[in-house]
């Protein structure tokens, strides 16, 4: 029987992608580390924001030799489906879950169950009410609300009547942004917030709410929209009613629709986040947690207020279009 020599054995292993070549005499070989499995679970797997989060996560997965599993719900309202996804990927053998939670309270049980089974949980974009979350990575929503209010004061002349349009009355991010707006304007006598309305996730609902507001409020000077869907649909209705420029609109996020409205002067400014960074840092932090390294309990990612002029500045372009850098 033909005897297989040491170098041939190494060549066979090379073909399997496990070693880089024949070892030198006396060199100790060690088996490669097992690949880490990380599940990224987002709120809306088809949304532009979450696609950018995924790109950042994929960049980190490549850098840190991670098997990345991407999933999410079809809309930003289904906490029960997200809980089921967390359970599913823990059962699949995920060493960590990077979670953009639908609900601050409702995902806590799923997070704690994952932790009991040995999967580290890193929260991105939205927090979860559980001490078992190893780290949170996202913006300071309260400060982002204050930024939006300051920009609206600038474009509207620090006076007038305004409304706030949010996604859901139970959405923690929106609640913190609204509080930031109200606190920023608390000592500004010339500004009045007429009301806050929530339009939910059904397509077209924010457009309808905007129409109702513009009809009901009469001389309305501005709208602050707290998320991408509310922002784009409010802009659409402002233009449809020929109120662009007359009703100022300060938005959140940077969907393609919002950027078009911004260039056309229907949106005066928008508060942008860095979803690529959230995805990248989410996976990197998950790897550190799996390796039992110390991780920061909270990492605040960047926000910027951009308008039709500053959107073309190079630093802002990097945040708006990270995939072309």
From TrEMBL:
Query: Which molecular function term from Gene Ontology is one that the record holds?
Result: carbohydrate binding
Q: Which Gene3D superfamilies match?
A: 3.40.50.2300
Methyltransferase listed as a keyword:
no
> From what superkingdom does this record's organism come?
Bacteria
Provide a GO CC annotation, any one. cell envelope
Q: Where found, per UniProt?
A: Cell envelope
Q: Residue ranges of the Periplasmic binding protein domain?
A: 38-293
Q: Write the record's keywords in alphabetical order, separated by commas.
A: Signal
Q: Does the keyword NADP apply?
A: no
Which PANTHER family does the entry mention? D-ALLOSE-BINDING PERIPLASMIC PROTEIN-RELATED
The entry sums up its family as follows: Belongs to the bacterial solute-binding protein 2 family.
Q: Tell me the protein's name.
A: ABC transporter substrate-binding protein
Task: Give the species.
Answer: Cohnella faecalis
């Amino acid at each position: 029987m033909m005897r297989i020599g040491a170098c041939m054995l190494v060549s066979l292993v090379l073909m399997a992608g496990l070693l880089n070549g024949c070892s030198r005499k006396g060199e100790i070989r060690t088996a490669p580390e097992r690949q880490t499995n990380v599940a990224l679970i987002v709120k809306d797997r088809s949304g532009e924001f979450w696609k950018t989060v995924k790109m950042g996560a994929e960049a980190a997965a490549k850098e840190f030799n991670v098997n990345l599993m991407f999933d999410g719900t079809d809309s930003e309202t289904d906490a029960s489906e997200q809980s089921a996804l967390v359970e599913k990927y823990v059962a699949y053998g995920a060493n960590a879950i990077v979670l953009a939670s639908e609900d601050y309270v409702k995902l806590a049980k799923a997070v704690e169950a994952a932790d009991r089974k040995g999967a580290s949980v890193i929260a991105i974009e939205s927090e979860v009410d559980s001490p078992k979350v190893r780290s949170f990575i996202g913006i300071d929503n309260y400060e982002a609300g204050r930024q939006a209010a300051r920009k609206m004061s600038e474009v509207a002349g620090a006076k007038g009547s305004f409304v706030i349009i949010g996604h859901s009355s139970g959405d923690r991010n929106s609640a913190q942004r609204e509080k930031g707006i109200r606190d920023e304007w608390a000592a500004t006598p010339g500004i009045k917030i007429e009301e806050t309305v929530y339009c939910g996730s059904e397509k077209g609902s924010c457009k309808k709410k905007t129409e109702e507001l513009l009809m009901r409020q009469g001389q309305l000077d501005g709208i602050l929209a707290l998320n991408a869907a509310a922002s784009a649909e409010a802009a659409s209705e402002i233009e449809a009613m020929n109120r662009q420029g007359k009703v100022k609109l300060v938005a959140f996020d940077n969907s393609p629709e919002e950027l078009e409205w911004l260039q056309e002067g229907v949106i005066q400014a928008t508060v942008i986040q860095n979803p690529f960074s959230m995805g990248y840092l989410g996976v990197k932090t998950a790897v550190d947690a799996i390796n039992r390294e110390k991780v920061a309990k909270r990492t605040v990612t960047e926000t910027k207020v951009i308008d039709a002029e500053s959107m073309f500045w190079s630093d802002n372009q990097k945040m708006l279009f990270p995939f072309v850098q």
